[in-house]
Write a structure and sequence with these properties.
- The structure is a single chain.
- By secondary structure, this protein is an alpha/beta fold.
- The protein has 2 domains: 135 residues, Rossmann fold (3-Layer(aba) Sandwich), CATH 3.40.50; 171 residues, 2-Layer Sandwich (Dihydrodipicolinate Reductase, domain 2).
- It has an 8-stranded mixed β-sheet with strand order 8-9-10-7-11-12-13-14, with helices on one face.
- Helix 1 crosses helix 9, helix 4 runs parallel beside helix 5 and helix 5 packs antiparallel against helix 10.
- The mean pLDDT is 97.
Amino acid sequence: MIRLAVIGTNWITDQFIDAALQSEEYQLVAVYSRHIESARVFADKYDSPQLFDDLEALAKCEDVDVVYIASPNSLHAPQAIQMMQAGKHVICEKPMAANYALAKQMFAVAEQNNVILFEAFMSPHSPNFRMLKSQMEQIGPMRAAFISYCQYSSRYPKYLAGENPNTFNPEFANGSIMDIGFYCLGAAVELFGKPQTVRAQAQLLDSGVDGCGSVLLGYDGFDVVLQHSKTSNSYLASEFQGEEGALLMDMIATGKTLTKVTRSGKRVDLTVAQNTNPMFYEAEFFAQQFKQQRIDGVYMQRSLIVAELLTEIRRQTGVIFPSDER
């Protein structure tokens, strides 16, 4: 049984804990929050985990094998490095780091301490995304792709009212491409690898982060257009066009449905049943790495490519984080 600790007491942490416990591979043993009362309130629904408000104490806790980190983006790298240097394996929410330099440093620390570092990006592990990937050759040579994830943020009204929520604050390494846009970029890299060219544009908010934007990725023989937004909604499926047909995926982040359309226009439903918790499959995947006691090199490389591309996209669009200047 993997002894799990969590850093962060928000809804996504709850969702990961639920996925981990469903897998029957994990036992929740510790909860960290900056405020011990917040840790206590969060932990009340679980079976008596230890509570921490001191990261050093958590790092030294011998009852913990793995730490799941779901703090603000800017804290991912320093917290992960601290845990790994103490011998803890780390599951780090996407994006794993604020920039490419920090992502490389994180994997170097993992290697130095012989621990596993895993970026919690759920899309590639879902059955419908795996089905999408397996069907690419069936639609012939790729000629175009459009990957979209646009969702009006529940925090945007607060921003418009003059507040400065984490979601739109560069101090926390946030913004559209680092949050919702990650799913689009990560999916493209998972499906097609590193692009030959990158062109990005974005609409920046007064806070300095992007509220929405688009990215054009150039590959050999086709382009991939990414559309992301936290200030508007979209109801379009992501589309992958080949010479012999197309594949349509509703909700690229979780792979809600998958449809194949042949060149003659025939529609075939390829959707397969999935766990209602989309994080279930990434929790299972990490458990496999834990049992093998090694980092999956393919997924490590994807994480590094995505981190490099995110940094380049922000350079092109003028989004700067404090950590970029260190």
